Every structure is written in C-alpha cells, then in structure tokens.
C-alpha cells in the first residue's frame, strides 16, 4: 500500500495529466516531461489553483501538502533548489537566503496574497525575478470583514454573545450593552487604496456623515469615488468616530498607530486594523484602551501572528481580535489560488502576468 | 379664563434615559411615580403603581393586559411604550377603553438595521468562532481554508417583511455586491424599487436565497412562520437571520436545521423566551450566534426613544397630537 502511494506521488510530480498506474512513458514523452519548468508550492493552496496548474501541462510541481502547517524552513530551503517557479503564501520569508538556495533558475515568484512584506523586494529585483500577487480578487472579502469587525466592535457583539451564554442576560434593559452608531458619524481611513474605498462604499448607507482620509499624498481619483476629504494625520485622529487602518506595511508606516495617534482620538472612537499588525504599537494600544482614551478596537492582524494567548490585549472587553481571516471566504480564497496559479504560468512563459508587482 | 391645571398621575415602569425623565419632570403636567430600577417592575408593584394613573410609560417586557388595565382604572388616557413592537399590549382591550397609545417607530430603525447587518456579517464570516479560537490557542498560523465563511458578493438576499427596518437593512446590504434582492410579505411595496427589490412568494425566496433575513412584525399570521417546512426549502449554504421577534421562529425546528446541515448558520437577536436559558441547545452550536436583544442598543437611539416616549405620553395626557401615535 505504502509503496503504491509513494510511486503515485512520484508520478504526480513529473506528470501533469492523470496517468493510469502501470502504463509506461515513451522516451520522447519522458524527455519532454523532464524539461518542463519545475515549480515548488509551499502550501496546499485551495483547489482551483492546483487544478489550473495540473491541467496546464506546462509545469511539474512539488508541494508541501498541508493546509494547516507551514513548510518548515529547512525543508523549504531544500525543496527550492533549482526551481524555475515558486508559489508561496504569506508565512514564508522570501529573502536572500532562500533565493540563494533556489539558485539562478528561479524566474517567477507568485504569492497568494496582496501583502508583500514577507518578500525582500530588493533581492528579487537584483535577481530579475518577476513577482505575481493577488490584489483586487480579495478586496471585497477584506472590505466585508473589516466592516464586520467594525460593527462587531462598535455594537459589542462579543460581549453580548458572552452574556447570552453565561447568564448575564436578564430582561430588556434600556442602557445595557449600548454601543456607538455609524449614523451621523465621521469615518476616517488611514491609507486610501482599493480596500479603503471598498470599505467606505459599504459604510455609506449606514448614514455616515463624513469620510476623511490621510495618506502620503492626496488620492483624488479614489477620494472622489467616496466623497472623502484629505486631512492630516492629526486631524484624522481628532475627527474620526471610526478609524480604519488600510495602509500597506512599509518602513514609513511601521508603528504609525501609537501613543501620539491614540492620545488625539475621541474617547468614544472605535479603532479598526485589518492591514498589517506592524502598523500598530500594541503596548500603546493597550494603554489607550484600558485608560478609556479610545472606546474600542478591532484587530484582524497582530504582531506576532498568532498572538500568544497570554497577551494583555486579551484581557480587555473592548478589544476584539480575529485570527487574520479578512480574505477568508470560500470564493475569495479559491480566486486567489487561481490567480496565483495563472500569474505563475504566465510568468514562466515570459508573458505579462494578470497581476504583477512592479519592483 | 384658565381652569385649574390638574396635575396628572404617571407611572413609569423602569428607569429610562435622562433625556426622557427630564422631559416628564420639567413638564409641569404630571407627577411621576417611577420604578427606579434597571430591572423589570415585579407584577405586584406594577398593579399597585398603575392604580389611578392617567398615563403609563412602559417597556416591551411589561405585559399590559386586562389585569393591568383594570388595576389602572378609568383615569387611564394614554400608554406610551419605549419600543416599536407592541405585541406586549392587549390592543383590543386598550381600544375598548378608548386609551391612546404612543410608540417609537423610525427613531430606532437605523440602530436596528445596523445591528441586523452586524449580526449577519458576524454569523456569515464566523467572527465569534474566530474570537474564540484566538483566545483558546486555536490560532497557529495563516491557513488558506481555515475559518472560511460565506461572502455577500454575488449573492441573493431575501428579506421577509420589507417594512421600515427591512428596507433599511436592504439598503445597507446592497453595496456588499449583492446580486439579487428578493422580498416577501402581504403586499408588494412601491419603495422596493429603491433597492431593486423583487417581490416573490415566500417559497421562491427560500429556495433561491443565500441569506434570509426576517424583519416582519409578530402577528398571528407570522407566529411560528420559520418552522421545519420553512427550513427544508432553504439552501444548505444559507445564512438565516432573525431580529424581529422570537416567536416567529420555531426554535426546535431551527436547531434541527442547523445540526443536520439543512442550513449553514443562523444569527438571532430575539428568542423565546427572553432571556434564553443558558442551557438551551441553540447556545451550544458553533453555527448559531445568539444576541440578547440589543437591536436598538445605542446610546443615541435609546436617548431619542426616551425623549419620544416622554413626548408621546405628555401629548396623550393633554389631548394633543402625539409625535408617534399608534393607529389601531
């Protein structure tokens, strides 16, 4: 049984079309197959992407066949030796060490994510490796989850479900579990990109009075779509009843949400981060929440991930923490998988990718 | 010529937000007797407190039935409820006695629609599960298919009861990329075109919708509407949300539907009874989110509701037009 399985996996690696066990390949077919570009996939990506790669007939691939556990570093460094293409997820650090281990054949890196802070862009550029990523296909799911998290935080759903389960629910009371409403509020966006716009579009019918944003520079085309006013970081803090962080993590945005920001915010305000954990100074956030400097916070991203269960933020009733599930809808994860696969195949053929990261 | 202004007696069944109390106490029209607690007035106290009252300000947890009306006596001119629902009041008996009724529609529409969408999103995107996994150490690293939920993009949404609140819910769901919005009820609504709503029979709604939101009033017709037959017609990936009244749902049938995979998940802000006992089977399900009736629970809305109910009450006492009178 075991032997049969191993043999099958070997076939799976070198062949793309399903072969019936026992049939032999012609010499020509063998020669052709062994010259197919070699690809390593660092995780069991959702079915759509794997199907596209398998049915393309253009690559031979090996895969770390787990959905659950990331590939260990040592294994990864071994497996990338000599590959032409690499498909990864955001848990793998693609740095000089890895790229050296891969060697000069590596032409294309395809990440199944929109964030690229796990990639050493300079090293990739140096080696002229093309990079594909997955913006846009996950914009809707991320915007949806951000709004879900905002509402869960502002309307105290976690506290409420807990009360319902543990006997805190008496009869209807007039001020119990009251939250803060979006109607007549000012919503501020830190970093106005695709996702920021999509969030604002979803918040509009809740009768938000005003949208404001800050960014390295004004973004008039995007701002026009949501009728948002460009303000300074200070004004964003002062005016926002709800502040959503939507910027990329860069050296400039690292820990930009810190004591300085929180001290200027309203004590009835709600702070939401679904971008990257590194944008927030977590100790400062803890201080702001526990001292009542801001009313509540919702985080889908932290430092590190996972956040250790002993972290002080977990002791706060007014802090909601999710395990980085912003793009976690079945359709979206499959779309990301498919896009990553297609980016890879196009890159290997020397053609323009569907979504290529400009280095 | 001014007649002596009689100070009328008012009984208020609960501590209400200051915005409302101030209006009553500063009116110079009534003397307020208050059950000064956050907890419901016990039945005995209620019957005592209403004796001889001209006006009664109550909450939805107070049963205003024949016994209460009888205890109040012939002075009673107005009942003002701090709610939009009135299923806690014996309307026939109230009408018989010529008593006017004030309630609080519209002012809580936004808060309730907002909470309904919050509940729908939290249920469909599995937020409570996510929060629990994070606290219990279930979160290891990013995984492609872990905690995946159902998105609104490209979906078909159904609203049962497209009234003020149903319409407000529909408006808030649209920009999430909903492909089709269906609704059912006694009649088609002309304003449904604002959200491109399609009026369909209930069975059609159930068989085609990925999200089913119940937003109708509780009446003899809607009591127990969501039962075995109802759930059996739904899609097995469907998300069921009820923020109307608990009695619209047959809870045993819902439990069956959730545990057999007949529907994917459910979110409830209202139950039978309220509170739901902590050992109720629905509270054990990962795919059922139960909230303790917080639909209108925002500081601003509760303050406005209190003001409105106070003003309704004063108008009823003085025989003038109420800001929000219940026509029945």
UniProtKB/TrEMBL annotation, chain A:
Domain D-isomer specific 2-hydroxyacid dehydrogenase NAD-binding: 147-326
Domain D-isomer specific 2-hydroxyacid dehydrogenase catalytic: 39-356
GO molecular function: glyoxylate reductase (NADPH) activity; hydroxypyruvate reductase (NADH) activity; NAD binding
Domain of life: Eukaryota
Keywords for this protein: Oxidoreductase
Signal peptide positions on this chain: none
UniProt cross-references to Pfam families, sorted A to Z: 2-Hacid_dh, 2-Hacid_dh_C
Gene3D superfamilies: NAD(P)-binding Rossmann-like Domain
InterPro entries in the record: D-isomer_2-hydroxyacid_DH, D-isomer_2_OHA_DH_cat_dom, D-isomer_DH_CS1, D-isomer_DH_NAD-bd, NAD(P)-bd_dom_sf
Family note: Belongs to the D-isomer specific 2-hydroxyacid dehydrogenase family.
Protein name: Glyoxylate reductase/hydroxypyruvate reductase
Source organism of this protein record: Esox lucius (Northern pike)
From TrEMBL, chain B:
InterPro entries, A to Z: D-isomer_2-hydroxyacid_DH, D-isomer_2_OHA_DH_cat_dom, D-isomer_DH_CS, D-isomer_DH_NAD-bd, NAD(P)-bd_dom_sf
Keyword annotations: Oxidoreductase
GO CC terms of this entry: cytosol
Domain (D-isomer specific 2-hydroxyacid dehydrogenase NAD-binding): residue spans on this chain: 117-295
One family name in Pfam for this protein: 2-Hacid_dh
Keyword Oxidoreductase in record: yes
Protein name, UniProt field: Glyoxylate reductase/hydroxypyruvate reductase
Species of the source: Esox lucius
Lineage: Eukaryota, Metazoa, Chordata, Craniata, Vertebrata
């Amino acid at each position: 049984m075991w032997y049969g399985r191993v043999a099958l996996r070997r076939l799976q690696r070198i062949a793309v079309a399903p072969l019936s066990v026992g049939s032999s390949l012609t010499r020509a077919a063998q020669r052709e197959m062994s010259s197919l570009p070699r690809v390593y996939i660092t995780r069991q990506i959702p079915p759509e992407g794997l199907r596209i790669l398998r049915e393309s007939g253009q690559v031979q691939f090996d895969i770390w066949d787990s959905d659950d556990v990331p590939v260990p570093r040592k294994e990864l460094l071994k497996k990338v030796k000599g590959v032409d293409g690499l498909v990864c997820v955001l848990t793998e650090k693609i740095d000089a060490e890895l790229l050296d281990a891969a060697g000069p054949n590596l032409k294309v890196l395809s990440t199944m994510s929109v964030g690229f802070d796990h990639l050493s862009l300079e090293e990739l550029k140096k080696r002229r490796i093309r990079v594909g990523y997955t913006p846009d296909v996950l914009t809707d799911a991320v915007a949806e989850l951000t709004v879900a998290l905002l509402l869960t935080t502002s309307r105290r759903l976690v506290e409420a479900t807990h009360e319902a389960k543990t006997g805190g629910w008496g009869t209807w009371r007039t001020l119990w579990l009251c939250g803060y409403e979006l109607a007549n509020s000012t919503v501020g966006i830190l970093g106005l990109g695709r996702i920021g716009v999509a969030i604002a579009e979803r918040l509009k019918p809740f009768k938000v009075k005003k949208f404001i944003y800050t960014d390295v520079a004004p973004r008039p085309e995007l701002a026009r779509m949501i009728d948002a006013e460009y303000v300074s970081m200070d004004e964003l803090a002062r005016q926002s009843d709800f502040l959503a962080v939507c910027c990329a993590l860069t050296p400039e945005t690292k820990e930009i949400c810190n004591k300085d920001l929180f001290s200027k915010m309203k004590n009835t305000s709600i702070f939401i981060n679904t971008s990257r954990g590194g944008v927030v100074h977590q100790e400062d956030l803890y201080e702001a929440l526990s001292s009542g400097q801001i009313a509540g916070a919702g985080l889908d991203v932290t430092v590190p991930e996972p956040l250790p269960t002993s972290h002080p933020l977990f002791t706060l009733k007014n802090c909601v923490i999710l395990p980085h599930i912003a793009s976690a809808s079945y359709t979206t994860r499959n779309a990301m998988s498919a896009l990553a696969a297609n980016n890879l195949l196009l890159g290997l053929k020397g053609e323009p990718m569907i979504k290529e990261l400009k280095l | 010529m001014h007649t002596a202004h009689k100070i009328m007696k008012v009984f208020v069944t609960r501590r209400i937000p200051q915005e409302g109390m101030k209006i009553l106490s500063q009116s110079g029209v009534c003397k307020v007797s208050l059950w000064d607690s956050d907890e419901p007035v016990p039945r005995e106290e209620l019957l005592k407190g209403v004796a001889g009252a001209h006006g009664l300000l109550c909450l939805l947890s107070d049963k205003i039935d024949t016994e209460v009306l009888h205890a109040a006596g012939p002075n009673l001119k107005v009942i003002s409820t701090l709610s939009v629902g009135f299923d806690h009041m014996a309307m026939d008996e109230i009408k018989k006695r010529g008593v006017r009724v004030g309630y609080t529609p519209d002012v809580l529409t936004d808060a309730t629609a907002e909470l309904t969408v919050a509940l729908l999103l939290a249920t469909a995107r599995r937020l409570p599960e996510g929060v629990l996994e994070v606290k219990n150490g279930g979160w290891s690293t990013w995984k492609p298919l872990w905690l995946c939920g159902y998105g609104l993009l490209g979906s078909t949404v159904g609203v049962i009861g497209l009234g003020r609140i149903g319409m407000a819910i529909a408006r808030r769901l649209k920009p999430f990329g909903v492909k089709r919005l269906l609704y059912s009820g006694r009649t088609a609504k002309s304003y449904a075109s604002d959200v491109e709503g399609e009026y369909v029979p209930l069975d059609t709604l159930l068989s085609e919708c990925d999200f089913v939101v119940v937003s109708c009033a509780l009446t003899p017709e809607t009591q127990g509407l969501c039962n075995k037959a109802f759930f059996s017609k739904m899609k097995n990936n469907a998300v069921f949300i009820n923020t109307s009244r608990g009695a619209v749902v047959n809870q045993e049938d819902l439990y069956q539907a959730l545990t057999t995979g007949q529907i994917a998940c459910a979110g409830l802000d209202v139950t039978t009874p309220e509170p739901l006992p902590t050992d109720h089977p629905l509270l054990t399900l990962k795919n059922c989110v139960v909230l303790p009736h917080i639909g209108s629970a925002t500081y601003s809305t509760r303050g406005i509701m209190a003001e409105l109910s106070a003003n309704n009450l004063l108008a009823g006492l003085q025989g003038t037009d109420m800001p929000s009178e219940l026509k029945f």
